[in-house]
């Protein structure tokens, strides 16, 4: 199967609930789906893959038991997918991602150049003023962080480029960078990402920059990575930090944006005050 990573951007018009479950077992008309989901089905078919996992359809959204059960399998869903299709450029499910990219710019138009690969092959490329695709909506949503980190292969439809990521290669089409950037990893291409050698503080620093629609999801949206980290290290999880890393794990500080002296707090209780998850 393929898995889909995308930004909901609000409630979904087509989702599986207790009331629609029986009908969805019979089939879901493609033209009923939001455009990003339709595009994902088209990509999946183009890859010759029979199945696709989409959270809005594969989880019964109003069944707490099913939600809890499926979230506990989130790591396996993304780790063992043939590829994760990332609708990186879509700000909501209604936004499609199969479109001609063009060349976006703010000040300086892209420059068309001829470049040589290491093998001496001449290729056409463009030089951009800056990496516009870093601002893709998917980079700022909390739930999509673990989907990206858990996936062994990601096909990302970004604003300006089509990007392929796996354990050993990053390949982007439409850049003035080497066609293929080889990573110095000991892992085999199909091996799952190992978090035991990852700095948990780096995970928190990157993840905590991302936004959530529901404040209470802060730890839940990181739970799949935490589960794997526990499995690999044997450490004890304590509301976003690890018991074995104490007291150093308490030495975090909140980032204050726009010079504001006030750090936002969630409306209700979410985590103990000694955890970074207690603040925004």
TrEMBL record:
Pfam families: HET (PF06985). Residues 1-147 form the Heterokaryon incompatibility domain. Coiled coil: none annotated. This is Heterokaryon incompatibility protein-domain-containing protein.
């Amino acid at each position: 199967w393929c898995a889909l990573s995308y930004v909901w951007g609000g409630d979904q018009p087509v989702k599986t609930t207790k009331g629609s479950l029986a009908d969805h077992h019979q089939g879901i008309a493609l033209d009923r789906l939001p455009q990003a989901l339709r595009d994902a089905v088209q990509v999946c078919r183009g890859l010759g893959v029979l199945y696709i996992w989409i959270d809005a359809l594969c989880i019964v959204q109003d069944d707490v038991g099913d939600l809890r059960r499926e979230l506990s399998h989130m790591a396996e869903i993304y780790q063992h997918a043939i590829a994760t299709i990332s609708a990186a450029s879509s700000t909501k499910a209604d936004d499609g991602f199969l479109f001609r990219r063009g060349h976006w710019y703010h000040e300086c138009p892209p420059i068309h150049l001829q470049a040589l690969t290491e093998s001496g092959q001449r290729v056409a490329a463009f030089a951009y003023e800056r990496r516009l695709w870093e601002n893709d909506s998917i980079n700022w949503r909390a739930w999509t962080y673990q989907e990206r980190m858990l996936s062994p292969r990601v096909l990302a439809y970004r604003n300006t480029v089509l990007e392929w990521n796996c354990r050993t290669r990053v390949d982007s089409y439409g850049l003035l960078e080497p066609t293929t950037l080889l990573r110095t990893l000991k892992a085999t291409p199909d091996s799952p990402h190992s978090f035991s050698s990852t700095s948990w503080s780096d995970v928190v620093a990157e993840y905590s920059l991302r936004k959530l629609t529901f404040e209470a999801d802060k730890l839940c949206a990181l739970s799949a990575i935490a589960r794997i980290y526990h499995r690999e290290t044997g450490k004890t999880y304590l509301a976003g930090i690890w018991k074995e890393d104490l007291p150093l794990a308490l030495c975090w500080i909140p980032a204050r944006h726009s010079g504001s002296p006030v750090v936002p707090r969630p409306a209700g209780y979410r985590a103990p005050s000694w955890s970074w998850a207690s603040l925004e």
